[in-house]
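ARCHIVE CARD
SHELF: 3
SLOT: left
DATA:
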Amino acid sequence: MNASASSSDLCLVVDGGGTKTDCQVVRRDDERFTVVAQGRSSGCNPNAIGTANATTAIAEAIEAARKAAGLPDETRIARAAIAVAGTVDETRRKELEHLLRQQSLAGECRVFPDVLPILSAAATTGTAAGLISGTGATAIARNAYGKCFLAGGWGYLLGDEGSGFSVGREAVRQTLLELEMGAGLSLLGQCVSEQLEASSVAAIKKTVYQPENHRDLLASLAPAVVQCAKAEDKPAITILEQTIEHLLILLHRAVSRLMPPGDDVPVAVMGGMFRPGSPLRQPLERAILRTPGYASVRFVDEPLECVHHLLHDEAFSRPILFAE
């Protein structure tokens, strides 16, 4: 990094979730952004750790990125676009934004809900939809007037069908059924039993319910389901087929609230369930495109690339509008 580079050329993008916060220092060249360096810290969802702790986590990620870029302390950053989980609520978002501005992290600093950037991967303006399936599952849609609607994201106690959590939960349920029937374990059942280090109904129940964070424990089983599906294990394939159905319903729920039937809506998809090589990618894309009303599907592998778009003048200043 050239420390003498104009500070007006340098910006920050942050993607903060419940488990980690990623930051990039980027250099602006007209309308393009080049990554200079990256940094990471712990999770920053203010609903989970409080606004003050979220501010600290974000500042630590930014400091790590600045250090990796070799930026002197006096080097100013022109603009920071900070996408954070748990900030759809405007009051919470403004509170976090106020605390971050007090840190003087950049000349301009704005906090965005972490569900917004995926829309830019589908279309920078106009109608668009995004589908996010990681530990949880959420769909977001935007109409031609810039108003957004969020569907799902209820959390594992109330929903999250189509998520890594729900995939892992169904894998455990399938394993328990196989054990109770006594007909031997499928490949999926064997993988679940091995990963949980439990081979009986009682042991599996104890393992699942014992830890405080059983949500993440169940979500951690999702990759095993994906691998078993690749090996043509029928129970695993069935679980992933159900997952696609749940995600289509979730996507339709978001889009139908804002747009009339027949609109050709571009869709972007992101999350751990759709990493490169996932057997869910092609089936989901086919299912979306054969459903009337959807124009295209794009899979996003790097969430921070979506946040880059929020640095553009129009996107940075655009009002954040959510329909109830």
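SLOT: right
DATA:
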Amino acid sequence: MTDAATRVAAVVAVARDDAHRFTKPVRDEIRLVAGHGIEGDAHAGATVRRRSRFRGTWTEPNVRQVHLLQRELFDELAVEGHEVGPGELGENVTTSGIDLLSLPLGTRLRLGDAAEVELTGLRNPCVQIDRFQPGLMRRMIRRDASGTHRRAGVMAVVVADGVVRAGDPILVVLPVEPHEALPVV
């Protein structure tokens, strides 16, 4: 499909970790499970998995099952003095050829042959980014006349099972208009 509602991009790398560590090791493949997240990843689950997201009950929906980040950010950060590679900022899927941050809420991304995620919001950068590389946190947030812009990627929930590998195509399907900007989650 190549109409105004769809675009094609690609997966650069995939990563997962079974423990709550900031950086995730790159893998040959990851398995996405609908309503759950990434099989074997510490952030997988239908309900909130992180203490930092806990708001009084562990039954709140987990809207952060999958973290996606565009590889193009690595080039921008290199110019600013920070060398970063896939998985190092905690993302599960590193993409190329698509501006993830500009996509609206509810956008669906088909990853490979079958896996599909729905965007739920922008990742809010946290202090762990500066623990990884001092000074990097301020590079992840831009402020200008039009407002605050977070560059730490997007979060999603899994809506269709499937295996995802580096090199897989990404099909972008925008939601019905009017489009709503991604909130910070």
